[in-house]
Amino acid sequence: MMALCAGSAHASGTIACVSDDGASVELTLASLPVLSVAGATIAAGEGGWTTLEDGDGQPVVVGQAARHGDLVVVDFTDPNIERIVAELRLLSATEEHDQVTAGTLRIAGQGAHALTCVGP
């Protein structure tokens, strides 16, 4: 799903996910020895959240992000890191030239969404 290598941080790609009910997530990842989310935008229903200073939506920060084999886990919190706003879980499978990524997005107080993704 993503290449993680030692060295200085640089963008390694974007993962874009959508649900059948209109929710979406876009993650920009940086290449580091650990999973690093350089930017994120989340939309669901009438709400929107972003880690980008100039982005549209309510501000959130990455509270934690980790990759465990084919599983990517990202929790977004309010800027004061007092509560989890959204939880993203993505699972990838690769066989020869085929790759698929799917997952879930849970937004506190709003609901859960099944996602299909592309990239990087």
Which tags fit this structure?
globular, mainly beta, 10 strands, 120 residues
What is the SS-derived class? mainly beta
SSE ordering: EEEEEEEEEE
How much of the residues is beta strand, in percent?
Answer: over 45%
Gyration radius, rounded? 14 Å
**What global shape is seen?**
globular
What oligomeric state do these chains adopt? single chain
User: What percentage of residues falls in helices of 4 or more residues?
Assistant: under 10%
User: Major sheet: size, sense and barrel closure?
Assistant: 10 strands, mixed
Strand order of the largest sheet: 5-4-3-2-1-10-9-8-7-6
Overall pLDDT score: 88
Low-pLDDT windows of residues: 1-10
Terminus-to-terminus distance: 6 Å
Summed up, the helix count is 0
Strand tally: 10
Tell me the layout of helices and strands.
Layout: E1 11-18, E2 24-30, E3 36-44, E4 47-50, E5 58-59, E6 61-68, E7 71-77, E8 84-95, E9 98-107, E10 111-118
Parallel strand pairs: 4-5
Antiparallel strand pairs: 1-2, 1-10, 2-3, 3-4, 6-7, 7-8, 8-9, 9-10
Short description:
This protein is mainly β.
